[in-house]
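hi! just following up on the protien thing from before. the input was this:
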Amino acid sequence: MTREEVSGTDIAVRTAGGVCPIVAESGALGKLGAIAAAAVRGRSACVVTDSNVAPLHLEAAVKPLRDAGFAVATHVIPAGERSKTPEGLVSLWDAFSRAGLTRSDLVVALGGGVVGDLAGFAAATWLRGVAVIQVPTSLLAFVDSSIGGKTAIDLPAGKNLAGAFHQPVAVVADPRFLRTLPAPEIAQGMAEVVKYGCILDADFFSFLEGVSTRGPGESDFARIIRRCAEMKADIVSRDEREGSLRKLLNFGHTVGHAIEKTLGYGVVSHGEAVAAGSVAAVRIGEALGVTPKGSANRIAALLRAFSLPDGAAAIGPEAADPDSIAAAMLSDKKKFGADIHFILLRRIGEATIFPMTAAKIREFLPAALAAAD
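and the predicted 3d structure came back as:
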């Protein structure tokens, strides 16, 4: 497989730095070696994964790389958000050093959002940048975190505060990974899927409502992964560094990240926090007169159907405490001066960036976080 053949895939992130093809098809993992060989000159690779994914998929990822002539090292981190730390970052640098990775070699991030964020940031900073291929294994990573080049680690002061934009040279997304995911992992991925319908595509949102009544099957997931990848790739291609349009993808994340920080990273899943944050954002939009009344109830119903919280109160009293959530939001990376760039909906399928002061948001938080009537 040549670089031109890989770059010819119909879904890709296209930026000034180059093209990141997204190979999203059953059996894509078997092409990993050919894709890697077309992407880099070197023939050393370090596959980074976690303790949940390693027993299931590590060997299947290593084999095509070795068949393509790569010397492959592996590094397994403990599963969970608590690995996304400065200490976790240093452990990856040590692994890259032992593997002898040079700037012409490759890092492969095999896993969900935590692995992708951590391995991507380590790749961005090792020798001032080595290539990375994202191989998502969770629904959340399939549709969101593996695409677009955002990499980061968490700090005590907040989520994803230390990071870098580092575009992968390819995303290899094999839907067969979904067969091994437990139901809670599918559910948290659906929070990001619903986000896309909320901010960009009303017809896709309606499709999800239909799917929710019968439960998604493999063909539904294939459509979901492809459509979300198309939307994410289009936005990143037009706004790689989050100057304007890409900020829309933060819908639900301002309050969501605050919930994660307040409860402690890993206590609640990212998807659950984003689901609660999405409902809070729409309630604020309704209170401001930006969002049509009834939108929050419709979104909450869809989230419930996918076994997600329909608001912060559904997670617990600490997640719905306005003072705690307001304090956590003050360290959010989406804060610009005195304002937080809050993402509101003009309607389902259309989002807008709405600068608000922290004090203004605090005014609306009690109602936004409260249990539904």
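The mean pLDDT is 94.
The CA atoms of residues 86 and 173 lie 28 Å apart.
cheers
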